[in-house]
Amino acid sequence: MPSPPRPQFVEALKDLLERVPTPFYAYDLERVGTQARLYRSAFRGARIFYALKANPRLRLLERLRVRGFGAETVSVGEVLRSYAAGYMPEEVVLNGPVKTPAALAELERSGAPTLVADSAADLERIARILPGAGVLLRLNPDLPVDTHPHLATGRGDSQFGVVPGEWPEVFERGRALGLVMRGLHVHLGSNLNNPADFAARLEVLDRLRERVERLGVLNLGGGFGLGLDPASLAPAMFSQARAYRAELWIEPGRALIADAGVLVARIWAEKRTRRRYLLLDAGMTAFLRPLLYGARHQVLPLYSGGRRAVFDLAGPACESGDVLARDVELPAPRIGDALAFLWAGAYGSAMSFNYLDHPRPGEYAWNGERWEVWRRPESLSALWRDEPDQPEYL
Ligand SMILES: Cc1ncc(COP(=O)(O)O)c(C=O)c1O
């Protein structure tokens, strides 16, 4: 289990509440530093690429870059974002099952990162538009893992990667196409908390080694849940890389930022239907994880209230699924009191969206003395910025 927020961060949050509109995301930079050190020291000698999808804010990327992290991306937008944060193409890896001609042409103009090919068709297209590019080939290890089905990307029935039986031939095909085939990529899924999943992957790689000689790079992806100790996983991962005579790369996202972040919302009504609800100004559009993954996030009241009771916490959308947590025991609040959803730093703001014209929340990071603005609250007028206000035709 991740630890609760530091008391001084909670005090700073209460101060921030007086200064910015809710809902907002807030991050404790000390926690980011602690997690970055933990992963750097467990994986000393490996290259670590931070998975932007967990939280792509430029200020965070810059911080991790100066600490020696590379960037793992899954779209041309994320690649350009990482360049905007100061990364060089050789510090960036591009994943993702679909790389369109338009995306590859953009990379030709802006600088190509290391590409992870996901299929034979991907290889052909990369070879045509970015001849001689450096490429890893993604393996589908065909392993069921212990996480939410939406997060299990390494299952045999998922759409990702090339199955072990075909992997060596497809890898050779990349070479024949003139690509610099640098190695193998495999990612099991996200939010893995069972070390047995990592061990099972090593067995798959052991078996594959009979058909694949040496690799330049063994990229074992991300997926490290907050309950895992990276130091206990690293030795087996290093020894697998040595067996392939490859450099070890990893791509943690969640582990670096999840427990540093909270989502803060205010309570605007208390009411009973057949259940007892608190109605908040944040819901699924600000924080999708509870709806998409059934994720449960601990809730910290930022008020001292009356008698404790059990509440469901619902958002402002007209969707009965817009419930961020159920059966949460809290002190009875007053209207306008605030609470924080913990461990919301990863896949929180990154997944916020504009359904129902809800602007995306502001984001702020506490450096021990001051709040740094990571993203201003989205303005209402930005919501229709890209729509013609006069008829427009093609
Ligand atoms: C290819 C790849 N690498 C890394 C990650 C990061 O995963 P996590 O944030 O769980 O570490 C993901 C996320 O699913 C991914 O798809």
Q: How would you sum up this structure in a few lines?
A:
The protein has 394 residues and is α/β, with parallel strands linked by helices.
Topology readout:
Layout lengths: L6 H11 L6 E5 H14 L4 E5 L6 H9 L3 E4 L2 H9 L7 E3 L6 H10 L3 E4 L2 H10 L4 E5 L28 H10 L3 E6 L9 H15 L7 E3 L10 H14 L3 E4 L3 H4 L3 E12 L3 E5 L8 H5 L5 E3 L6 E7 L8 E9 L6 E4 L20 E5 L4 E5 L19
Parallel strand pairs: 1-16, 2-3, 2-9, 3-4, 4-5, 5-6, 6-7, 7-8, 8-9, 11-13
Antiparallel strand pairs: 1-10, 10-11, 10-15, 12-15, 13-14, 16-17
Helix pairs in contact: 2-9, 8-9
The chain binds pyridoxal-5'-phosphate.
> What general form does the structure show?
globular
What's the main sheet like? 9 strands, mixed
Number of domains: 2
Low-confidence parts: none
According to CATH, what is the topology of the largest domain?
Answer: TIM Barrel
Number of strands: 17
Protein model, in words:
This protein has 394 residues and is of the alpha/beta class. It has 2 domains: 7-26 and 258-384, Beta Barrel (Lyase, Ornithine Decarboxylase, Chain A, domain 1); 30-254, Alpha-Beta Barrel (TIM Barrel), CATH 3.20.20. 28% of the residues lie in helices and 23% in strands. The protein has 11 helices and 17 strands. The strands form 2 sheets. Strands 1, 10, 11, 12, 13, 14, 15, 16 and 17 form a 9-stranded mixed beta sheet that branches. It has an 8-stranded parallel barrel with strand order 2-3-4-5-6-7-8-9, surrounded by 5 helices. Strand 6, helix 7 and strand 7 form a beta-alpha-beta unit. Helix 2 (29-42) packs parallel to helix 9 and helix 8 (195-209) packs parallel to helix 9. The longest helix is centred in the middle third of the chain and has 15 residues, at 195-209. It starts with 6 loop residues before the first helix and ends in a 19-residue tail after the last strand. The mean pLDDT is 96. The structure holds pyridoxal-5'-phosphate. Pyridoxal-5'-phosphate is lined by residues 51, 53-54, 72, 95, 153, 187, 190-191, 221-224, 251-255.
